[in-house]
Amino acid sequence: MINVIWLLFLVVGIVVAMFNGNAQVVTDAAIDYAEVAVELSLGLIGVMTLWLGIMRIAENAGLVKLLGKALKPIMIRLFPEVPEEHPAMGAMVMNMAANIFGLGNAATPLGLKAMKELQEINPHKDTASNAMCTFLAINTSSVTLVTSSVIAYRAAANSANPAEIIGPTIIATTASTIAAVIAVKLLQKLPIFQIKPEKEMES
Amino acid sequence: MFQNIMGAISTYAIPLILLLIPLYGYIKKVKVYEAFTEGAKEGFYTAVRIIPYLVAMLVAIGIFRKSGAMDILNGILRPITNLIGMPSEVLPMALMKPLSGGGASGIMNDLFTTYGPDSLIGRTASIMNGSTETTFYVLAVYFGSVAIKKTRHAVLAGLIADTVGIITAVIVARIMFA
């Protein structure tokens, strides 16, 4: 699926640009965005390092386990394939907590840590496991209580009440998260999304 | 009241985490400095490992946006958004959000300037921005970090969630502010 979407972005974009007699735009965009991608990745190094360090202290102190225990009933249902005591559970819980409180900077490193742990128990290393897809769907549906950046933008634009959108946003983000969980659980049963049997030999 | 609490959380959350976790660790006899640096070592490699995936995704998205293909997609989808009562001005932001957080915020700020942040358009855009994610970016980064190439149903599920977020944002905005 990602192959088709990626190809469509490229092909449609380039064809439209040429049709508009604007092929130079493609060259500029390709080079600019390649640079932006590297800047974004390198920009992550600092916060990644910081939060993975803090995360390790939390882990060694038993904090992650504690948080994981509290949320165990929900987590086992969402991720039946992941063993209850597995470190992936703790990392996913920490990532979701960071997302809920709008700590964008902290959420990504914790999420990547969770992916790494999930990969450890993934029998097909090049294929996303059910748990990975569920985790990503919840993540991309953005469970957020405080949308601090939106509030900041509204304040900058002289809104009379910049924070009035918090309540409605919580309703909308809750709906999208519920939809994400339902969608991912239904889709994983579809034949086209099954992991091909011959791949199982590779593990 | 609720807003004050939320504001306090976003201001104090990170300082408190940075204070309490090392402190708790120390009490639990963790060698905090050593544990920190040990965990932190992974940071660099993870960040570098996502570069190819992010370049692939952002270049494709960038070409799609800058070529004008995005505007054509807007035109095609307009009749559908009219059906659900979405202000057509907000549509470009809704389409941009899964592709680029910065792009979506740019469009939102543009809507604020043109229509005001407290207009129905401005409010709908705000709620929408807060309730959807940069799905393609997150997917590229997260799957890229562990070299997953076959993403199965993750994209579709993410886009379904975004769609539901967008539609709910439109409905909630209309009920509360129209």
Describe the structure.
- The complex is a heterodimer of chains A (203) and B (178).
- Chain A is mainly α.
- Chain A has one domain (45-194).
- In chain A, 71% of the residues lie in helices and 0% in strands.
- Chain A contains nine helices and no strands.
- The model of chain A is unreliable at 199-203 (pLDDT under 50).
- Chain B is mainly alpha-helical and 178 residues long.
- Chain B has two domains: 9-67, no CATH class; 88-177, no CATH class.
- Chain B is built from nine helices and no strands.
- Chain B has helices at 2-27, 32-49, 51-66, 69-83, 91-96, 101-115, 120-131, 135-145, 154-177.
- The model of chain B has no long low-confidence stretch (mean pLDDT 88).
- At the A-B interface, helix 1, helix 2, helix 6, helix 7 and helix 8 of A face helix 1, helix 2, helix 3, helix 6 and helix 7 of B.
Which keywords apply here?
heterodimer, A: 203 residues, 71% helix, disordered C terminus, B: mainly alpha, 2 domains, 9 helices
Q: List the secondary-structure elements of chain A in sequence, H or E.
A: HHHHHHHHH
Topology, number of strands of chain A: 0
Largest interface: A-B, 111 and 100 residues
Strand content of chain B: under 5%
Q: Would you identify the regions of chain A where 5 or more consecutive residues have pLDDT less than 50?
A: 199-203
Structural class of chain B: mainly alpha
Cα Rg of chain B? 20 Å
The total count of helices of chain B amounts to 9
Through-space gap between termini of chain A: 23 Å
Q: Could you tell me the mean pLDDT of chain B? A: 88
Q: Roughly what percent helix of chain B?
A: over 70%
Query: What string, H for helix and E for strand, traces the elements of chain B in order?
Result: HHHHHHHHH
Task: Bin the strand percentage of chain A.
Answer: under 5%
Keywords (chain A): Membrane, Transmembrane, Transmembrane helix
Domain Nucleoside transporter/FeoB GTPase Gate (chain A): 42-150
Transmembrane segments (chain A): 33-54, 91-112, 133-153, 165-187
Protein name (chain A): Nucleoside recognition protein
